[in-house]
Write a structure and sequence with these properties.
Layout: H1 4-9, E1 21-24, E2 27-30, E3 36-37, E4 39-40, E5 43-44, H2 68-73
Antiparallel strand pairs: 1-2, 2-3, 4-5
The structure holds zinc ion.
Zinc ion binds next to loops.
Length: about 80
Amino acid sequence: MISQDLLEILRCPLDPSNVRLRMQGENLECERCALRFQIKDGFPALIVEEAELPAGCESIAQLPCQRSDNAKSAPV
Ligand SMILES: [Zn+2]
């Protein structure tokens, strides 16, 4: 279980500037893109590559949260 204090400072690794995470059962879920992160030994594993994609989403590129470095270089 993650403490409320820790939960306050955690952010989605895809958009760390302002997107928070919430508890969703045993996992942490991004409030925006709904990526699900496991909690291992009491520590959130905020690793995008290990996170579970929301239902109906096939790749990280489809999520509303995007890494800012990608956003800058991606062609529009
Ligand atoms: Zn997110």
